[in-house]
Amino acid sequence: MLGRRLLLTVPTLFGVLVVAFLLLNVVPGDPVLEMVGERADSATIARLRAELHLDDPLPAQFGHYVWAVVRGDLGRSYITRRPIARDLTERFPKTVELALAAMSFAAVTGITLGVLAAVRPGGAFDRIAMLLAYLGVSFPVYWVGLLLILLFAVTLHWLPPSGSGGLAYLILPAATLGMRSLAVLARMTRGAMQDVLSSDFVRTARAKGLAELAVVGRHALRNALIPVITVLGLDVGNYLTGSLLTETIFAWPGVGRYVLSAIEKRDLPAIQGSILFLSVVFVLVNLLTDVVYAKADPRIAYD
Amino acid sequence: MRLFRLCAAAAPLMLVACGSKSGGATALAYYETYDPRSLDPALSTDVPTGEMVSYVFDGLTAFDVNGRLLPGLADRWTIGRDGQRYVFHLRPGVRFHDGRAFTAADVRATFLRVLDPASTGGRAWPLYPIVGAQAYAARAATEVRGIQVLGDTAVAFDLTEPLAIFPKFLAMPVVAIVPSPAPADLAAHPVGTGPWRFVAWQHDDYLLFAKNLGYWGGAPLADTLSVRIIPEPLTQAAELEAGRLSAVEVPFGEGSRWRARRPDWLQGKPALRVTYVALNTRRGPLTDLRVRQAINYAVNVPEILRTVWDGRGVVARGAIPPLLAGADTSRTGYGFDAAKARRLLAAAGYPSGFEIQLWRSSSNVVLGRVAQAVQADLEKVGIRVELVDRDASSQRQAARSGKADMALLDWWADYPDADNFLFPLFYSGNFGPGGNYAFYRDAITDSLILRARRTADDAARTALYRRIDERVYRAAPWLYLWFPVDLWAKHPKVQGWEFPVISNGQRWTGVRRLP
């Protein structure tokens, strides 16, 4: 099963490779001019074009490109001249760190809120939690991030406004990045819990005299979590490919910002390399999620 | 406060991450909006790189915060009677951070390295005035005849023609002196003679520098200087308010809040920068002088400056920023006069106006709004403007190649001299890529600009600049907008810091932070 799934990722990745390669050729403007900035002489420009194979026929250029990628060489940034593969692998751990923190925060808080809300539907806690969840989905990330900075860093001085370092630096960006998932998870958990709580086996559990905590915690939650895990699994790929906005607001040195600044500077090899790298991450993470999911729930099988 | 102490435990990051809160009284913290391209002077084409280079390296000359020329690694220089030969006498006893002694041979090696096509910095032009430099850069020569090493302590340059501003070229970061032979990883681990030694660089996160105790100009007052990379202006401001940055530029749109809340933190100074709309003098109706003048009359510049630009600027009646010699702040400007604009348009044969394109860059939001305001004003006199949105580089390319009727742009000084606003922008030899996006050509202007470049006497040169600026202004190759006034905020605990009008003019040596 795994082998087949793995095989299926090959055409996907090849497609990405073609798109990433063509990017350089469809974007208007001369990439070399971007490299050398204002006031460059034509000799330099001609030499750089030759170095980058820009004057070769398209298939030959693609050949050069694929051969390099296969060797793990994503090329060098036009702007910094550093190898792009190294730039990305330097920043990726930071993105993983933030992603894990945001997901843990969203999962723990979201599921807790959802369960508590479902226990007494229509109660005060339910209403407040669902209102918060509603706002969490609606508020723009940028705005929430800046408000959190103003409140917790500038006014209260509890946390640093931005940057990376210890745990203190992780809290605000993780909360900002996880906010949307938190809200979705809270609503999903509440819905699933309500379904489960009104099902026959829960009635049976209550009837045989189990404590409410055991009913909710052990019997109901376990079953309610299945759709929740699905949603969480789908999110993993999104988180791991970096967050442009959160990383920018909090000056977090992850891959999201790398991609953004590459786009801003029209650093085409860096954009190309990032697309390729992030696509691979995305495809692999989704593959992994599918596999884990099948293991967790025996009813699911991939043919 | 507990969490701040928590972060102080992360020892190596402490000075940077926890900055001034726990890093002690002697840590300074600055920021850049994006990661420097490199730390190799030869690659310093962007502001962050130029600033970092100015901390670690020295040039033969230097700028102070107000853009005045100072001696650098050369403590004095002499100019031959013909104005074409410069002899720079080097400061004795200077050492690189790795202990090597600095000599005249390093100057020559540095300059050859910058000119070498293999370094592909693309910005070797400050050295082009030297005899043989361009040929060397084009691989047409194996030696630069105009550079002569005179023993260990002096170096002479022969120029192709007299150039009074040449010493200013040598203060630019691209020609900062590196040791020879240059270390292979200079871009990542720079070794210079400057006031700060390089310590660490975490990409997109921070750079850390420590004071050079043996600096020839006296060691910096602070022990360390960290430079955070913070893209979002509102986050930068929050970092300053939290006491973790020494100074920041006040974000656009936040000016009034800061003026009300922290007036004593603020510093405003006219920048060496001009914001303008290049009117392509070779395209359509814009070939007619009366049309270009009409455009200058039709747009209510002071109003746009006040409302859209946060009032942060001085209306431009010329291209030379007010801080530079040659600027004429008393010149009579076009002024806002829609009726006069209509009369001029009628006289030019466009009584019912015409259609035209204005190219703007979508990456600069505020400038984008300025374009809309210009469009609205021109509409009132019958000029129907189509806004063309492109990313910055496509817009620049269109302007360069002459495809844009009008392009909204700003020009930043590379060196603080009026020449940097006249020669690139209005000399006909600099059409397109050189900076003359208006494709303005006037034989008298050309000859005056060249004459000014060759004039050694400062007063005479200043008079020439004023005359050129006046002449060009009347020919209206631009819609003249304003000289931006930069607004900065400095943390009250930081002493001795002033924001520089030219980016490498503040080297943080005389700055300290009170506990």
Task: Give me some keywords for this one.
heterodimer; A: 303 residues; mainly alpha; 13 helices; 77% helix; elongated; B: 515 residues; 8-stranded mixed sheet; 4-stranded mixed sheet; 17 helices; 20 strands; 30% helix; disordered N terminus
Task: Please describe what this structure looks like.
Chain A has 303 residues and is an all-alpha fold. In chain A, 77% of the residues lie in helices and 0% in strands. The radius of gyration of chain A is 24 Å and the shape is elongated. The N and C termini of chain A lie close together (7 Å). Chain B is α+β, with helices and mostly antiparallel strands. Chain B is built from 17 helices and 20 strands. In chain B, the strands form 5 sheets. In chain B, strands 11, 12, 13, 14, 15, 16, 17 and 18 form an 8-stranded mixed sheet that branches. Chain B has a 4-stranded mixed sheet with strand order 1-10-9-8, with helices on one face. In chain B, helix 10 runs antiparallel to helix 12 (338-347), helix 15 packs antiparallel against helix 16 (443-454) and helix 16 packs antiparallel against helix 17 (458-475).
